[in-house]
Amino acid sequence: MQWNPWHGCRKYSEGCLHCYVYRTDAQYGRDAGCVVKTAEFDKPLRKKRDGSFLLVGDEPVYTCFSSDFFLEEADGWRPDAWRMIRSRSDLSFFIVTKRILRFAEAIPSDWGDGYENVTICCTVENRRRAAERLPYFLSLPILHKQIICEPLLERINLLPWLGPQIEQVLVGGESGPEARVCDYDWVLDLRAQCRERSVAFCFRQTGASFRKDGRVYAIERREQHRQATKANIDIK
User: Fold this and answer.
1) What is the number of alpha carbons within 13 Å of residue 109 lying toward its C-beta?
2) Which of 36, 66, 196, 222 is deepest in the core (most CB within 10 A)?
3) What confidence category does residue 209 fall into, taking pLDDT thresholds of 50, 70 and 90?
4) Could you please report the per-residue DSSP string of 47-98?
5) Is the dihedral of CA 56, 61, 64, 70 positive or negative?
6) What is the helix, strand, coil percentage profile of the chain, to 5?
């Protein structure tokens, strides 16, 4: 399930260079740099004619995947979004951000140690961003933490930050016609690190430009998730 309370973003770091939101919006003549509140803003509270909620079930609610939940332009809307998240304690909200450094100034007053139904995923695409974001990420009061290395742009050593706080590491390459290379050795290295620290690992997608055994393969979009799954290297 997806919920995009606002749409549009500003490119923030190296991983944003070939952002899929920008690429998709450009196809329709839209400016992805224009941040707008969407028509589905109140989707978690919407009900069907029979009075039941529109969003139900055990699947995570992938939140704000066409923007960044902690984007400055959304500061005025976020308090209402938090209230909806708190009120739907029966749902699990999955939030991915590159702007983890804004976390403390963007949480509700009743956050405490965190909401049980919220997973915060900190994105790190290279060594620079891992060193910048992860020490702070580990210091934050969040009940469910994950690390996402997507797009994975180089070999990264996560060992200094892997431990019981981190529930899972997700890894993937970059999509799109201008995708930068993702090397399978980098993926396997992160997997080995997760195994060493007993952290779950998920190889989510190969990306469009995938190097294995020194050879670079162009992977079609529909095959990127399937090929990653076929590798069968996830650690539960």
Assistant:
1) 0
2) 66
3) very high
4) B-TTS-BSS-SSS-EEE-TTS-TT-GGGTTTHHHHHHHHHH-TTS-EEEEES
5) positive
6) 30, 20, 45
